[in-house]
């Protein structure tokens, strides 16, 4: 049993560079995949920016509509806007 463990550890030691490179590659790959498709990805950022633009446009339209309605209300009440 001791020989098996020693041989196993020795083989790991000889391949330590490849193991380290594999771990680094796996970590960087996971990070890149998360960056591309995860919860905080570029696609989510793009979608949020599009939504922000649409909401700002809607706010602008509603402000104009609100101004017109207030003007009509003042005219009905007989006040000057």
Description of the structure:
The structure is a single chain. The chain has three helices and no strands. It has 81 residues and is mostly helical. The model has no long low-confidence stretch (mean pLDDT 88).
Give a concise summary:
By secondary structure, the protein is mainly alpha-helical. 88% of the residues lie in helices and 0% in strands.
Give the H and E element order: HHH
> What's the end-to-end separation, in Å?
95 Å
Q: Averaged pLDDT, please?
A: 88
Number of domains: 2
| Secondary-structure class | mainly alpha
Q: How many helices does DSSP assign?
A: 3
Strand content: under 5%
Low-confidence stretches: none
Tell me roughly what share of residues is in helical segments. Answer: over 70%
What is the quaternary state of this protein? single chain
C-alpha-based Rg, rounded: 32 Å
Instruction: Specify the overall morphology.
Output: rod-shaped
Number of strands: 0
For the biggest sheet, the summary is: none
Protein name: Septum formation initiator
Organism: Helicobacter anseris
Task: Tag the structure with descriptive keywords.
81 residues; Septum formation initiator; mainly alpha; 2 domains
SSE inventory with pairings:
Blueprint: H1 2-14, H2 16-37, H3 42-77
């Amino acid at each position: 049993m001791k020989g098996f463990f020693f041989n196993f550890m020795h083989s790991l030691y000889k391949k330590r560079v490849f193991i380290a490179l594999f771990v680094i590659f796996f970590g960087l790959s996971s990070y890149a995949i998360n960056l591309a498709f995860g919860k905080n990805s570029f696609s989510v950022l793009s979608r949020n920016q599009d939504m922000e633009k649409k909401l700002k446009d809607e706010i602008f339209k509603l402000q104009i509509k609100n101004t017109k309605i207030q003007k009509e209300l003042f005219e009905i009440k007989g006040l000057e806007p």
